[in-house]
Amino acid sequence: MIVETRLKFLNNQPVARGNYILYWMQQSQRAEWNHALEYALYRANDLDLPLLVCFGLNSDYPLATARHYRFMLEGLKETAKALEEKGVKLVVRIGNPPAVTAQLAEKAALTITDCGYLRLQRQWRQEAASKIKCPLIQVESDVIVPVEEASAKEDYTAGTFRPKILRQLHEYLQPLKAAKAKRDSLGLNIESENCDDISGLMLKLNFADEDNLLDWIHGGTGEAKKRLEQFIENKLDRVPDERNDPAKNCVSRLSPYLHFGQISPIFVALAIRESGSRGSDIFLEELIVRRELAMNFVYYNPNYDSLTCLPDWALISLKNHADDRREYLYSLADLEAAQTHDQYWNAAQKELLLRGHMHGYMRMYWGKKILEWSPSPREAFQQAVYLNDRYSLDGRDPNGYAGVAWCFGKHDRAWGERPVFGKVRYMNEAGLRRKFDIDSYVEQIEAL
DNA sequence: ATCGGCTCGCGCAA
DNA sequence: TGCGCGAAGCCGAT
Fold this sequence. Notes:
six-stranded mixed sheet; alpha/beta; DNA Cyclobutane Dipyrimidine Photolyase, subunit A, domain 3; Serine Threonine Protein Phosphatase 5, Tetratricopeptide repeat; Rossmann fold; 6 strands; DNA-binding; 21 helices; 3 domains; globular
């Protein structure tokens, strides 16, 4: 049914006498291509019990703002409907997710959950595991190859990680059969927030900040699939030549959907592969090798969001240059307001503010310059993480932390020594001009 | 325009 | 122990 290496038993409780099986949805916020959901359905049908899905909504997730919550709620609304069609009720409650779950688990025979690797998500699962009096089973559904199977340790670069994950791909990059509930839970009388009322929920969560909302992108599995289809149809062939060009818009913008678990990486990878496009290999390298290297990074490195996550050569080298004179120094407020001397950097920051998204190539340049213009590498790292987490729709994601860390030397090799950067790879605006029509990018952003 | 060097550590071959 | 190789760039030599 579900491959055993996707499962992890988080406590030692025996199956209880309960009224239902509970699936605590948190990372995989979707009703299709969801291994945790399918495993829960399988156990529910096997035990002849209904399946109840719960979601804990807390309004104080660090650095999450109105744009993130609305995107997530749009997705949940659609997911609630799709679950209903399978005979499954979704209970959404405001509160600390493990507490919400533990309460509903009192009447559950068995609790299933999905899997994210950030510090807070792991704490939540630990907290729930200690409170719940029935088994709590974690099912991995947001990476293609389960993290511990892909590699037993933190990998040094993509070069070491790539062969490890690619040789296991055939085993895990497989379609998932969808089941329906034998006994439905729709009639269960259990209190829930109304997922259809997104603006009402936003108010309850104390988010009335209309300024921070985005109108060019909306959450949900349907939206994600539409974007994927259009990307394959219109852009994938151009990926080998144009993916790095900020002026070309040759990007999928699927990362927010992957971040909130609104689309399955397996579904995306299979669709890309089946397209047979000349861009498939490069896209799959980014979706699988790079994305899952980021998972490997946050899973094995507890310091993933601070400077100390770096390899020794980078840490030592940056320290050796801590006292170098900085030609430009900006405060967090300067950076946040996109007010530097560099129009390319300002454009990238404005894209982040206005779209909640930044072109992949500009993310590198943007992070490198924060390192160059901050009083210390430590402050630079914190500021880059803060800005990305707060403004990017895909903030607070393993890819975001790995991306910032890369700018400071993570997953990279040493390069020629220079001021401030030491041996960390340097980037400059001449590179942008040499390779791209970067002024066109600036114009596009200014037009927003 | 194109190309090699920069520099480090992993991981495999011996 | 030695050595090939990575890898989303820059820079100076040709």
